[in-house]
Amino acid sequence: MRQQFLTPTGTTFLTTEFDQQNNWIYNDWQGLLTLEAIQEGSHGILHLLEQTHCPYVLTDNRRLLGSWKHGNDWLEQVWIPQALAAGMMYYAHVKAPGVFGQASVEDMHLRVGSHLHLQLFDEMEEATDWLHEMQLLKLIG
Length: 141
Fold this sequence. Notes:
Strand 5 (90-94), helix 3 and strand 6 (117-121) form a beta-alpha-beta unit. The chain has helices at residues 35-52, 72-85, 99-112, 124-140, and strands at 2-6, 12-19, 24-31, 56-64, 90-94, 117-121.
């Protein structure tokens, strides 16, 4: 199942899908994000979590521009508790290249990192390797 979220001008700001082969939810955030876009896209991700009960999430912010720190209060207080209740346990986050995006994710990590297994990565390969390792540990553990 794949969902695409568009700005009012028709530009994609999020593509999210359940990757059955890897057993994780993949989120590709793009462009500049308003609070409304963060909320709308996050509700879409939550819908996938509720449908699949998949504990693994891979968020790719390599094409994100600017800060999204304005959404962190809402993410911490509203979305994270709902996502955890839907079964999310492991969250691999590939950081945006810019300083503002990196500051946003580091702020989020400080807020919610103790509630789940959240790791920040500079490269996609590191993130996917970590998720595969978490899946393997869960199988043998």
